[in-house]
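Duplicate of #3305? Posting structure anyway:
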């Protein structure tokens, strides 16, 4: 993918209550299907999108969180979660879904797609992107 633009999709909203989270995921999957260089960042209430065992029964919204497991199949394996956002919401890395991808260069070794980074690291990652889209 040399020469291609680097896209970062920033997820700031909780998974329920608005359409931002589900639409953001759909756009990421579409972009990845067209072989865009895609990564995602989860900050603020967006960290709740990756929380394990989501129960949306009382919200009237469909639980779309299982769709995140498809990201690895689309080579979206850089999911950056802001450490401070997790801490501010009483969450830890263990509260997040175990999302993985298989590294074909290392005999299909399964690796974690989630990378917990601090605010300064996330800021540096944002600086490296060509296009940033907020959801």
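Output from current build:
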């Amino acid at each position: 993918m040399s020469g291609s633009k680097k896209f970062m999709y920033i997820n700031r909203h909780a998974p329920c209550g608005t359409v931002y989270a589900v639409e953001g995921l759909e756009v990421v999957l579409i972009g990845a299907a067209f072989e865009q260089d895609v990564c995602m960042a989860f900050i603020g209430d967006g960290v709740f999108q990756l929380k394990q065992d989501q129960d949306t029964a009382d919200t009237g919204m469909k639980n779309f969180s299982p769709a995140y497991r498809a990201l690895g199949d689309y080579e979206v394996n850089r999911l950056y979660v802001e450490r401070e956002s997790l801490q501010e919401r009483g969450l830890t890395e263990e509260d997040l879904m175990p999302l993985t991808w298989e590294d074909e260069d290392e005999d299909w070794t399964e690796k974690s797609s989630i990378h917990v980074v601090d605010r300064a690291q996330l800021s540096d990652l944002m600086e490296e992107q060509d296009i940033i889209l907020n959801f």
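Confirmed duplicate; merging threads. DSSP finds three helices and seven strands in the chain. The first strand starts at residue 6 and ends at 11.
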